Amino acid sequence: MEPGEPGWEPGEPGWEPGEPGWEPGWSRGGPALGGRGLLALAVASGAAAWATWALVLMPGFRRVPLRLQVPYQPSSPRQVANALALLRGRAGKTVDLGSGDGRLVVEAYKQGLRPALGYELNPWLLCLANYRAWRAGYHGKVSFLKEDLWKVDLSDCNNVIVFLAPSVKPPLATKLLAELPDGARVVSGRFPFPSWTPSSTLGQGLEQVWAYDMKEVRRAAQSSAQGSPV
Ligand SMILES: C[S@@+](CC[C@H](N)C(=O)[O-])C[C@H]1O[C@@H](n2cnc3c(N)ncnc32)[C@H](O)[C@@H]1O
């Protein structure tokens, strides 16, 4: 179709400057966006990205400082198996801090770690976790609580699982040291606690998981504090 033929629209390919209907700012293939158009596009893209972040990826995180927010990334089956292998033979209250779709909590319960519960802020993930528990036949046996992991009291926990970003490990180490009993074990997936010495570890690369016994962690912290110059 050529310019001037019935049905031809300005801005379609073939429209040349100077032809009837041409206006400055139009280019071959359609009208150029111009400054305002680009600004509108940028604002719309930003709003879409924000809506995805706030409504899908991180709903429920409004009160959590940005530096402490950890997005969802599920553990692989190998990571789950490694984490639970490091808790084999243990007993007592077991929690997953940021439990996602509940896979670690359900497997922990299956392994006999009871009570088993997860703390999670994302309501979509809480629904998924409850569905997973129901499908496994554990409805009402495991719990998923809509709580901020930074605000829960961990003083009665015996086994703590954390699959969280390395950036939050230092403040989390402070919380765990302050609250967990001596007999507690912390299992950390993907990233170790930088200043703690693990009692054992399992797996390689991204599948690696570390176990920390709080009594040992405290002993090491005390002896390094005594050995360091004041
Ligand atoms: C890396 S994912 C791990 C999910 C799950 N533990 C797993 O390994 O499959 C971290 C999870 O922690 C949750 N989370 C992050 N910050 C949280 C907070 N302050 N309180 C509760 N949950 C949180 C996120 O929504 C996300 O589901």
From TrEMBL:
Residues that span the membrane, as ranges: 38-58
Gene3D superfamilies: Vaccinia Virus protein VP39 (3.40.50.150)
GO molecular function: protein-lysine N-methyltransferase activity
Gene Ontology CC terms: mitochondrion
GO biological process: methylation; regulation of mitochondrial ATP synthesis coupled proton transport
Highest taxon listed in the record's lineage: Eukaryota
Name of the molecule in the record: Protein FAM173A
Lineage of source species: Eukaryota, Metazoa, Chordata, Craniata, Vertebrata
Gene that produces this protein: FAM173A
